[in-house]
Amino acid sequence: MGGDPLLDQQLPSYPGADGLIAATHGEAVVLRGLTKRYDGRAVVDDVSLDVPKGSFFGLVGPNGAGKTTTLSMVTGLLRPDAGRAIVAGADVWSDPATAKARMGVLPDGLRLFERLSGAELLSYLGRLRGMPAATVQSRADELLRVLDLEGDSTKLVADYSTGMRKKITLAAALLHSPPVVLLDEPLEAVDPVSARVIRTVLARYTAAGGTVVFSSHVMALVEALCSHVAVMAHGRVVASGDIASVRGDAASLDDAFMHIVGASDVGEGGLEWLGSSPV
């Protein structure tokens, strides 16, 4: 499916967009000048970023830094005011059908078809993508087994725990074997067992050549999993690169993050009343 002429008229074009697509052979995701404003304030402010193919890429930043808004524009859930997002060689906003076929998405707070079972949900989503029924069945069975959902495959999604919901959504994101997976807080409120399963599956995915982009507030998790990281603050990317270069001489990525975003440690003074006997 080609681009929508009306969409191209409404969305400000980024100079050299065609050349940008042609130059993305080594990158899974390329952002140039991505911008989103609310009430005149730039929530995402001229963000440009390159995500190498096969990388495990973390997007980190304080609350309100613009991470979720950025991912929403990259995945086509939110229209940017300016700039371009290229995913696996396809422009997300001028060729959305191609771009969305090449990505798997796990957004934060995704609403699911709760009156379907886990197995039915995967079957339904696979057929929506036009996949052959036999392929959908085979891949769904394997994903349910690997993600430890096989015993709950006939249970309604409405009865799934938070961890199970995250896992079935990840299964849906991986079902069509996309080259890029974008995840917003994939391990938020997930129990340790489910979190470990998800981490293992994502590590296997990148080892096979896939690219993962995910946002997180947990620096230790990003440092343990990711090969690359971008730090956002006030809607801008303030640092980006492989983990070692962003960490620099700091003892940990958490320490480097605090320095990069200009945050200070909690002071020792004050709050002397904490822990004292009640009046």
TrEMBL record:
Q: Pfam families in the record, alphabetically?
A: ABC_tran
Write down what this protein is called: ABC transporter ATP-binding protein
Broad class of the protein's primary localization? membrane
* The ABC transporter domain, residue ranges: 29-259
Q: Which InterPro entries match?
A: AAA+_ATPase, ABC_transporter-like_ATP-bd, ABC_transporter_ATP-binding, P-loop_NTPase
Membrane topology reported for the UniProt record? Peripheral membrane protein
Sorted keywords for this record are: Antibiotic resistance, ATP-binding, Nucleotide-binding, Transport
Coiled-coil stretches: none
Q: Name one GO molecular function term.
A: ATP hydrolysis activity
Q: Which GO terms describe its biological process?
A: response to antibiotic
**Gene Ontology cellular component terms for the protein in this record:** plasma membrane
Q: Give compartment(s).
A: Cell membrane
- Source species, please? Nakamurella flava
Q: Which CDD domains does the record cross-reference, listed alphabetically?
A: ABC_DR_subfamily_A (cd03230)
